[in-house]
Amino acid sequence: MRRGTYGFDAPWPFAGLIAGAAVLLSLTVVSFAFDVAPAGVAFLLGGLYTLASALSYAYTTRRGKFAVWERELDDLDGGERVLDLGCGRGAVLMTAAKRLSKKGRAAGLDLWQAKDQTGNRAAAARANAGAEGVADRVDLVTGDMRALPFAAGAFDVVVSSLALHDIAAAEGRAEGVREAYRVLAPGGRLLIADFQRTEEYEAVLRDLGAANVRRRNLGWRFWYGGPWFATWMVEAAKRSE
Q1: Alpha helices in the chain, H assignment, sequence order
Q2: How confident is the model over 204-229, as pLDDT tens digits?
Q3: How far apart (Å, rounded) are the C-alpha atoms in residues 166 and 58?
């Protein structure tokens, strides 16, 4: 059971879906009141569709993404060094940290921008680490994914969830992937979940010579409104030298 509070992902698109559903359903009432049945039916269908999208979004941000990441991280072994890029309030970071031994360390890096998540602050992530009982093995770092302040090979596992797409330029996103791969130890694993640009991440990893590169759909639990905003996982391993 989660004890921390993890906010709401990208709240403005969700607010737009709720507002859109309210407007369409209001127009439904008006249309039927003025006996314009065809328009009323169209507005009703549109309103219900938009409301369903909003419910999908809410489920993903509050429950679905946690279930997916728990499954993805279940095979972590104790004593590993984990890095979460764009950790936010720590949804994935704490999930990973709880699977580590007492000697393991989990680092979370972010620029702490509120537009990406409600209440996105280092203090909120730190409070969640305490609430989840993993404060003794979690480190928080303010930094840019394109220039990680870590040595090469410093981590056994690097993860990122819905963060790389926030970098506007394609070269910047590629640099973020290259940096994630640089700090990964030989034999380590990289997991990048995103609903945009995942083909780019896959291509960069293949160019780097990463092993076992693949891209897969994470399913309905990670839809931000519907299948058109499905989240994909790009995974790879660093070849042992």
Answers
A1: 11-33, 37-59, 65-73, 91-97, 122-131, 170-182, 198-207
A2: 999 999 999 999 999 999 999 999 89
A3: 20
